[in-house]
From TrEMBL:
Taxonomic source organism: Xylanimonas ulmi
MF terms in GO: ABC-type amino acid transporter activity; ATP binding; ATP hydrolysis activity
Protein's name in the database: Cystine transport system ATP-binding protein
A GO cellular component entry from the record: plasma membrane
Entry-linked CDD domains: ABC_HisP_GlnQ
Top-rank taxon: Bacteria
Presence of keyword ATP-binding: yes
Membrane topology classification: Peripheral membrane protein
Residues in ABC transporter domain copies: 12-251
InterPro entries from the UniProt entry: AAA+_ATPase, ABC_ATPase_HisP-typ, ABC_transporter-like_ATP-bd, ABC_transporter-like_CS, MetN_ABC_transporter-like, P-loop_NTPase
Length: 255
């Protein structure tokens, strides 16, 4: 995958993102830039706004203020009503992997992967099927194509969730704590797939409590606390030599 964006700028640029639920301000002015091929990890205590930030990046949440721009797309200003076309365009650029995979229980693995590209992206079914099979093969699940989700382990289900996101052909992959609902022995296989995707050059933003994963795979780590980015940096800096006492406290508690 190419490092360069058509404009030479980052793939994603968010500025001053704010989000309130009622009078609870959950994001209080967050800046985020993600270059093509980069992996950014969002860490921080529960309730610090990580998921809300991630969901804001693909239009699942609409911020109350700030701007968001994906390379080649419009600069969305959340202080004004966001036109539907802009919201849809934003959603088309990324794909989200959730904590719970949300697979359709009545569909086979293959059908689960094929449906998105066919329904959402209008890809011809035969083409979507071919691509789905290649992706399932890549994550070692080709032999499960006709199985139903309930016949798979949690780790296998989550790998199908990842394939389903890849099948949409997004520019940006968003992961919302993809391993936190898994039994500990199943976490490794999912993180392994994510590591491979990072090595292949996918651009990824990952909310995670798996700090060793963030340390090994991320290019940049953002520590959120109380709706702001308290500290950001390369993993060896942020984990090895955190500047803020609050970051040190968090890392001590979780490591
Ligand atoms: P994190 O991912 O860091 O745990 P979240 O972004 O999930 O944090 O949540 C931040 C805060 O926003 C929490 O206090 C949460 O209760 C609140 N929140 C999140 N979504 C909603 C919502 N839809 N309505 C009201 N409050 C919400």
């Amino acid at each position: 995958m190419s490092e360069a964006s058509p404009s030479g700028g980052p793939l994603l640029r968010a500025r001053g993102v704010r989000k309130a639920f009622g009078d609870h301000e959950v994001l209080r002015g967050v800046d985020l830039e993600v270059r093509r091929g980069q992996v950014v990890a969002l860490i921080g205590p529960s309730g610090s706004g990580k998921t809300t930030l991630l969901r804001s990046l693909n239009g699942l949440e609409t911020p109350s203020a700030g701007t968001l721009e994906l390379d080649g797309g419009p600069r969305i200003d959340f202080a004004r009503p966001v036109p539907k076309a802009q919201r849809l365009a934003l959603r088309d650029r990324s794909a989200m992997v959730f904590q719970h995979h949300n697979l359709f229980p009545h569909m086979t693995v293959l059908q689960n992967v094929v449906e998105g590209p066919v329904q959402v992206r209008r890809v011809p079914r035969a083409q979507a099927r071919e691509r789905a099979l290649a992706l399932l093969d890549r994550v070692g699940l080709a032999d499960k194509r006709d199985a139903y989700p309930r016949q798979l382990s949690g780790g296998q289900q989550q790998r199908v969730g990842i394939v389903r996101a890849l099948a949409l052909g997004p520019d940006l992959l968003l992961f919302d704590e993809p391993t936190s609902a898994l039994d500990p022995e199943l976490v490794g296989e999912v993180l392994g797939v994510m590591k491979e995707l990072a090595e292949e050059g996918w651009t990824m933003v990952v909310v995670t409590h798996e700090l060793s994963f963030a340390r090994a795979v991320a290019d940049e780590v953002l520590f959120l606390d109380g709706g702001v980015v308290l500290e950001r940096g390369a993993p060896h800096e942020l984990f090895g030599n955190p500047r803020q006492e609050r970051t040190r406290q968090f890392l001590r508690r979780i490591l």
